[in-house]
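TA notes, week 10

Several of you asked for a full example with nothing omitted. So below is the full record: structure tokens for the whole chain, then the designed sequence directly under it. When grading your own attempts, check the secondary structure regions first.
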């Protein structure tokens, strides 16, 4: 089972390379991807190869009647893609808007939380000061008691 999958994958790899070598007309090729321009060039080369392959298949194997059907399907696809692109842009705008609202809410929550922390620290500092005052008072009492005991 595993051998068939590997063989099938290798066959498609070879087929892809054959299509690429037959239909690619680009002189520019990259050995290693090193920048965004290299990626852009690779994508453009890939798309051009696909366009060349499909136009060749269309010329050689598709009848005039089917070319008309294909043109109609391309037109329908363009309409659908335009519709979905508009919906996508609307959704993107809504996400951006909600992101701004979320940012405002979060800012309010953080401000509230920081106020609560400041209040808590203030109370802790107050209690600490009270505790220090009590310890100081007890310490004075202990010293006075020692002095009293030593005098006797």
């Amino acid at each position: 089972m595993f051998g068939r999958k590997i063989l099938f994958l290798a066959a498609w790899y070879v087929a892809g390379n054959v299509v690429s070598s037959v239909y690619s007309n680009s002189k520019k090729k990259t050995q290693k991807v090193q920048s965004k321009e290299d990626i852009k060039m690779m994508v453009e080369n890939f798309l051009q190869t696909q366009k060349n392959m499909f136009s060749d298949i269309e010329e050689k194997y598709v009848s005039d009647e089917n070319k008309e059907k294909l043109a109609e399907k391309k037109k329908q696809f363009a309409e659908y893609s335009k519709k979905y692109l508009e919906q996508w842009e609307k959704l993107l705008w809504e996400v951006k808007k909600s992101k701004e609202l979320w940012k405002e809410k979060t800012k309010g929550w953080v401000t509230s939380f920081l106020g609560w922390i400041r209040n808590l620290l203030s109370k802790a500092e107050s209690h600490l000061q009270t505790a220090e005052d009590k310890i100081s008072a007890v310490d004075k009492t202990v010293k006075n008691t020692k002095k009293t005991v030593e005098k006797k």
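The longest helix spans residues 64-151. Use that as a sanity check on your answer.
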